[in-house]
Amino acid sequence: MPLVSPFRRDPLIDGRQSERAMAVRRGVQRLMIRLRVSVLPEIPLVSGRRADLLCLDDKGEFSIVEIKSSIEDFRADRKWPDYRLHCDRLYFATHPGIPTEIFPEECGLIVSDGYDAEMLREAPLEKLAGATRKALTLRFARLSADRLLLAEWNAHGTSDAPSIDDDV
User: Fold this and answer.
1) Phi-psi label, residue 23: left if phi above 0, alpha if psi -120 to 50, beta otherwise
2) Contact 124, 106 (CB under 8 A)
């Protein structure tokens, strides 16, 4: 269960994520914390897609980390190229049981053991357009603030906390 679960319908754990995927996510989040990168899980994008992890670094650059928990998960996914429209860098994250050579060379690669993670390959920088960056920055800030506020209310037992729509 996540520390922050501000939605009545919890987008952070909605039944699509396996235990293995959640372990990979936890390790990647720890890596990003060490790198001083802010991370939000399960972020809806304007394209209708949902990024597993949206990361914002101290330069204002966005990365998306797409988590793959099995070979089948990777092979069945044809949506990942769409994520390039919403980030400066695109990464795949997986666990040590998946052969790393299946992942495209043009994307970064992170391997997580569930407790930590290691970046095996840096993603190339493909700068976002200015208007896209501004919109994504506002989305990141709004979702961060909404989740923090509702986490505070939940921590203090505020039973009448309003529902916040995560599809801003």
Assistant:
1) alpha
2) yes
Measure the CA–CA gap between 166 and 139, rounded to whole angstroms: 10
What is the distance of C-alpha 97 from the center of its chain? Answer: 21
Task: Return the C-alpha torsion angle 138, 139, 144, 147, nearest 10.
Answer: 140
- Bridge partners (DSSP) of residue 63 are 55, 89
Per-residue pLDDT tens over the stretch 93-152: 999 999 999 999 999 999 999 899 999 999 999 999 999 999 999 999 999 999 999 888
Residue written as token pair 């966005």: 62
Closest CA to 165 of 153, 152, 151, 147: 147
Biggest distance spanned by C-alpha atoms of the chain? 50
Identify which of 134, 132, 106, 133 has the alpha carbon closest to the alpha carbon of residue 121.
106
